[in-house]
């Protein structure tokens, strides 16, 4: 039988890692710099959507003029009719994390757009079903949003999951 190593279990409040060391500079946006976050991801099927929203929150707080484009299954993240047992009710803690984070980043200045084609043709959602403040847009705007931000030399994050 292998010898078991006995190491005391870490206790709540103890640190296992050096959380104070930062390797890269803490960059902030220069005046007029923009950022674009493109999300084509299924909400709640993995962590990508929520992680990108948290990253968008950091980008916004660093001073970038930030835009988020939801297309394909990403439009489902902006559902304003989510909830259980009623719209807006949290069926379990964290159930509305995506909705709450989208509301936070909009409140802090991020503009959020949702593709009308994905809303209607793919998922049967109405524009009125979107979270207040999310703006529906033409599917022809997906590429043009990228081109415009590229021309502005924006920071662009583009995530695809299926």
Topology:
Blueprint: E1 34-40, H1 48-61, E2 65-70, H2 97-107, E3 111-115, H3 116-122, E4 135-137, H4 141-151, E5 155-160
Task: Provide an overview of this structure.
The protein is α/β, with parallel strands linked by helices and 162 residues long. It has one domain (34-160): DsrEFH-like (Hypothetical Protein Ychn, Chain: A). 27% of the residues lie in helices and 17% in strands. It has helices spanning 48-61, 97-107, 116-122, 141-151; strands at 34-40, 65-70, 111-115, 135-137, 155-160. Strands 4-3-2-1-5 form a 5-stranded parallel beta sheet, with helices on both faces. Helix 3 (116-122) links the parallel strand 3 (111-115) and strand 4 (135-137). Helix 1 (48-61) runs parallel beside helix 2. The longest helix has 14 residues, at 48-61. The protein starts with 33 loop residues before the first strand and ends with a strand. The mean pLDDT is 94.
